[in-house]
Each structure stands twice: as C-alpha cells, then as structure tokens.
Amino acid sequence: MPVCVVGMLVDFELIQRAQKGDAAAFNELVLAYRKRILGTIGRLIGHPEDVEDVGQEVFLRLYFSLDQLRTAEVFEPWLYRLTANAAYDYLRKRRRRMETRMSDLSEQQVVLADAMAGGKIDRDDGERKRIRDAVGSLLGAVSEDDRVLLTLKEVEGLSLRELGKIYHVKENAMKVRLFRARQRVLKAFRASERQAARVGSSH
Amino acid sequence: MQSNDFQNDQPNEGSERLSALFQAYRDVCPDPEASPNFMPQLWQKIEARERVSSVFGRLARNLVTAALAVSTLMAIAVSIEHSRSGPLPSETYVEILAEDHARRELGYFEPVRIEPVADQR
Question: What's phi and psi for B117, nearest 5 deg?
Fold first, then answer.
C-alpha cells in the first residue's frame, strides 16, 4: 500500500511567523519539508539531476506566496499544489525541449518493453533501474496532467480528499478525473506488456 | 487511507500489476537528502528575485510620479488658458448653432443691390 505522506511537520505558529517575513522561521520550514518535497519531486519528474532545481523553485514560490495563504491549516495542500505546479511546468518545458530534439516516441516504447520484459520484480540495482525506467516511460507516454495526478495518487498515496484540496476540485470530480487518467495509463501499460511479451518470445 | 479504494471499484485487466509497479516505484525512489548547497542557492535565488521585483517596483513608482506631475501640469495649463479666454457664452451649443444657421438663412432674403450699368456710349 502506498504511504500516506501528508501530516504536519511543523506547528502553525512557525508558519505564521514565516508569513510575517521571519527569515529564520522560513528557513526552518524549508528544512522540515525539504526531504519530503524533494522525494515527491523526484518521483514526479523522474530526473534526479533536476530535483534540487525544481525543489528550489517550489520553495521560492512558497516564499513569495506565503502572504496569500489564508490559514496555516491549509499549508500542506498549498505546498503540494506548488510542488505539483512546479513539476508540471518542468515536465512541460522538458517535453517541449525533447520534441525539438526528437519526435520519435518509439524509443521510449522500446525502453519500456525492455523494462517490462525483465520479468519478476527484484530489488537489485538493475531491477531498480528497470522499474524506474518502466514507470518513467509509462508516465512519459501520457500528458503531464495525468502524470502528476497519478503519481500523487498512486505513488505518493494521497487520498481523494487531499487531492481535492490540492486541485481545488470536489472529491467526485477528482474521482472521475483520476479514473480517466488511470484508464489512459492502463491502456499504455497493457500495450507495453504485450510488446514485452513479443520481445521476450523473440529473445 | 484511500489510495486503492478507487481502483478496486473498477477491476481491470492489468490494474493490479500496474498498482504493484507504482508501489515498487515508490519503494525504489526514496526521499533524497539535499546537497549542502541547497539552502544557500535557495536564498541566492530569493534575493535575486527580490532585487528584480524591487527594481520593477521603483520603476513603477517613478512612472506613477511622472504621470501625476504631467497631469498636474496639464491641468494648470488648461485652467490658465480657460481664464484667458473669458467667460463662456450663456447659450447652449445647439442654441448658438441655431442662431448662426438663422443668420445664414437670412442672407437669401437680403435685397439685391443692383449696380447701375455704366453708359457705354
């Protein structure tokens, strides 16, 4: 079962002090959430080399938008919203860069097929890389919206209620959105499984 | 925790394997430790952004001040011009137009002056 990651790491007073412009309080806030946010970003974007840059962008946006936060209670959904937006912006920019470099998605499909052909999931390094590549390729085949949403739900383990708060959408609407996104990924997953079976039988 | 509730409502071929793959992905991607440069770089970025916004803020304030000065000067110039040109007529614009029109109309009814033709002989 995915781990539920949302839970306050700091008290409201610290957030209120940071809102009033207390640099030390803001520093403490960043230190408290840094590891968790960097982990989420890493799983959202799938490029470890850019995780810190995106993480700094998240906390930069937090610094300049803290005064808009109405109550300290909504701090975490707010932070996750900033994280999702920053990851989305990064993925969109990256996709645009990739599109200018190569318009061939078949390579991505081959990577995924190879990863899927690896068989049973173990925990050695090769297997870890294979899992990362498989999920990266799978999520790379859908839109940035679907990627971010599904990662937050399936990998980060956020509940529908938490996602509703992050996306400012009612739970039922979130459920529909999630269902559609999952169906699209599932379709890509089944296609990759079929391709993996073909690759496996040809070897 | 509701993470798998929804997908269980919609059993699909491969759905469980996909969930297992996502779970495995979560397990092989732990939260990383930040580099020692993370905080210094973050504060550098914050200060750089603050500098840019303060430059734009100053520019905006200067523009507003200049615009206020220009409009004050224009207001003074207009009021001086107005005081020089004397009082405004008491009639309305339509009345003045009507009066002018009537004066022009009267021109048709003025007596024709006949110049005496000089005797050529």
Answer: -80, 125
Mean pLDDT of A126-139: 88
pTM of this prediction exceeds 0.80? no
Is residue A94 less than 8 Å (CB to CB) from chain B? no
Task: Write out the DSSP string of A36-82.
Answer: HHHHHHHHHH--GGGHHHHHHHHHHHHHHHGGG---GGGHHHHHHHH
Whether residues A42 and B32 touch (CB distance < 8 A) is answered with yes
In eight-state DSSP terms, residue A103 is -
Q: Looking at residue A90, what is its pLDDT?
A: 95
* CATH 1.20.1440.230 holds for A7-102: no
- Structural domain boundaries of chain A? 7-102, 104-203
Considering only residues 29 to 58 of chain B, which have any Cβ-Cβ distance to chain A shorter than 8 Å?
A: 29-35, 38-39, 41-42, 45-46, 49
Q: For domain A104-203, give its CATH number from 3.40.50.1970, 3.40.50.720, 3.40.50.300, 1.10.10.10.
A: 1.10.10.10
pLDDT bucket at A147, cuts 50 / 70 / 90: very high
- pLDDT single digits (tens) B6-34: 444 445 678 899 999 999 999 999 999 99
Residue B9: closest CA among chain A residues belongs to which residue?
A179
